[in-house]
């Protein structure tokens, strides 16, 4: 596989790349013969389609096993994986491989199909992403279905990607189920969700999809991806971002492109340093809590304002004349609903931001543990550390705390992470974290 192949953008971890490569080959085998994608369940192998023996047997008999297994490909996929593991990156790379026009080397990375698919401008790829807390059934009916049932324009198939498919509400899930059960002839559906847990994703819908788990990638995978996406980066920059993001692709991207992301990380690591400074520790905790609220407000405000204006416009708020008063009264409930949704979304964004900070703090304690166990002690360059630029802080932690206290601190962070799921206020949560880290760190006992 060459570096330019779209498969180099997929993690090698967990066999993701191999599975999707096999699926792509099976799909292109069909494309090259003018066959549709749908109907996999009705034919057991390509050989049946062609009216000759057994495809797998044929594959092993032919030179180099050139006939792929038909069963490697299907029309509906569910990609799950932890935050930042690269579900949607993988989905897009897979889409490019399917839309590639080079049947002999699908996913070549060089053809028009591959390039426009990766850039998101290919007419046969549609990506559904939402800023909202749910994907309503309207989106499936009005936007997704009509698109999915059209035939491809230039490629051999169309690819529909739904990011955050966990946000499909019940009705929308049912509508998607119908689409998957009566599949369009030439459309591949890829749904991405953090988990396939029943509370996040419809069980019935899941049972109709091929499930691919995209695990947190190795640092080296992230470096490769960053360099593929941003040829202007130096190896060193990519390496740094991949290391400190600890395999979180979205964050690594943020670190190379956005000063704000780097600053946010510093704040979290400063929090960890304040644990041993009782005079200011609670101030730091309170400050971080306030900044979380401010940061989310800053990121969301303009989107929220635009949503409100759009809704008011569609409701005719501000219009005058007969009926306008009645319309205004009727619209109050709808506007309230939007505001409630926005509030929930802010809350979710705040939790996500705190979760990132907790991950950073945990990384620092892990580094201390590595140093204390001697694994990273004399490597000089800080090899193996998640935060090589905070090596001194990690060393200080390792010097102050025995290994069991470091472990206790890591457990404490996990405990506070679990609290994120409940409705505890940010200030309370970060106070709790500070207290627990101080107890684990035996602050004030010496
Ligand atoms: Zn190509």
From TrEMBL:
Coiled-coil segments: none
Database matches in NCBIfam families: PRK07940.1
Organism: Corynebacterium lactis RW2-5
Region of interest: Disordered: 49-72
Superkingdom field: Bacteria
Protein's GO biological process: DNA-templated DNA replication
Protein name: DNA polymerase III subunit delta
Occurrences of domain AAA+ ATPase (ranges): 73-218
Pfam family, one: DNA_pol3_delta2
InterPro entries, sorted: AAA+_ATPase (IPR003593), DNA_Rep/Repair_Clamp_Loader (IPR050238), P-loop_NTPase (IPR027417)
């Amino acid at each position: 596989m060459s570096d330019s192949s779209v498969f180099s953008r997929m993690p090698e971890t967990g066999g993701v790349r191999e599975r999707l490569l096999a699926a792509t080959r099976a799909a292109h085998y069909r494309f090259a013969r003018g066959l549709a994608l749908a109907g996999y369940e009705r034919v057991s192998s390509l050989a049946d389609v062609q009216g000759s023996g057994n495809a797998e047997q044929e594959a092993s008999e032919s030179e180099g096993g050139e006939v792929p297994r038909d069963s490697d490909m299907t029309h509906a996929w569910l990609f799950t994986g932890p935050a930042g593991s690269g579900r949607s990156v993988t989905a897009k790379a897979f889409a490019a491989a399917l839309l590639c026009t080079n049947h002999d080397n699908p996913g070549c990375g060089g053809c028009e199909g591959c390039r426009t698919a990766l850039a998101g401008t290919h007419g046969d790829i549609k990506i559904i992403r939402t800023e909202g807390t749910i994907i309503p059934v309207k989106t499936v009916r009005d936007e997704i279905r009509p698109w999915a049932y059209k035939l491809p324009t230039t490629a051999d198939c169309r690819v529909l990607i739904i990011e955050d498919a966990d946000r499909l509400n019940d009705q929308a899930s049912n509508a998607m189920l119908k689409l998957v059960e009566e599949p369009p002839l030439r459309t591949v559906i890829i749904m991405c969700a953090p988990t396939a847990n029943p509370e996040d994703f419809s069980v019935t819908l899941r049972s109709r999809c091929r499930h691919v788990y995209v695990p947190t990638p190795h640092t080296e995978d992230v470096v490769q991806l960053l360099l593929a996406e941003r040829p202007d980066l130096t190896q060193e920059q990519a390496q740094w971002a991949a290391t400190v993001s600890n395999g979180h692709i979205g964050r690594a991207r943020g670190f190379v492109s956005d000063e704000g992301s780097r600053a946010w990380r510093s704040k979290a690591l400063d929090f960890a340093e304040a644990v041993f400074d009782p005079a200011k520790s609670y101030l730091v905790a309170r400050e971080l809590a306030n900044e979380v609220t401010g940061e989310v407000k800053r990121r969301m405000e303009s989107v929220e304002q635009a949503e409100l204006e759009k809704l008011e416009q569609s409701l005719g708020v501000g219009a005058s004349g007969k009926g306008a008063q009645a319309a205004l009264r009727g619209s109050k409930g709808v506007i309230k609903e939007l505001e409630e949704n926005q509030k929930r979304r802010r809350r979710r964004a705040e939790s996500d931001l705190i979760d990132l900070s907790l991950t950073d703090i945990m990384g620092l304690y892990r580094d201390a543990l590595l140093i204390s166990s001697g694994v990273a002690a004399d490597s000089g360059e800080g090899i193996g550390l998640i935060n090589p630029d905070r090596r001194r802080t990690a060393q200080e932690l390792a010097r102050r705390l025995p290994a069991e206290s470091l472990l206790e601190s890591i457990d404490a962070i996990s405990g506070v992470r679990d609290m994120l799921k409940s409705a505890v206020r940010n200030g309370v949560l970060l106070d709790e974290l500070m207290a627990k880290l101080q107890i684990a760190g035996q602050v004030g006992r010496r």
